[in-house]
Amino acid sequence: MWIRVGTSQVSSVPGFLPSSRAHYLNFTIILFVSSCCNMMGVAIFAVYANCDPTATGAIQKADQIVLFYVMDHLSSLYGVTGLFMASLYAAGLRLAVE
């Protein structure tokens, strides 16, 4: 998906210099998003290093750990869980459209 977006951005600009700027901007955004995802994984690992939510029965599958983390630690902040769920729903719809 990321390659297709980057290719369409590069091919839609008129010259070489703007296309290289679009390419570097796309690369920077992808690097930032990937770094955020990696840091989120490290943070969740640090929180649940001593207790395994799958072993305690709090979650059934390991891919539910991010949702469990949001509900467990961020539920005290008003609106954060709803915003997170809405963003996941929007991402799922976007993938379904493509």
From TrEMBL:
Does the entry feature the keyword Membrane, yes or no? yes
The name of this protein is: Sodium/iodide cotransporter
Q: Which organism is it from?
A: Portunus trituberculatus (Swimming crab)
Looking up Gene3D superfamilies in the UniProt record yields: Sodium/glucose cotransporter
Q: Where in the cell is it found?
A: Cell membrane
Source superkingdom: Eukaryota
Q: Which GO terms describe its biological process?
A: sodium ion transport
TM ranges: 24-48, 77-97
Query: Which lineage do the record's taxonomy fields give for this organism?
Result: Eukaryota, Metazoa, Ecdysozoa, Arthropoda, Crustacea
Q: Name one GO cellular component term.
A: plasma membrane
Give this protein's Gene Ontology molecular function annotations: symporter activity
State the membrane topology.
Multi-pass membrane protein
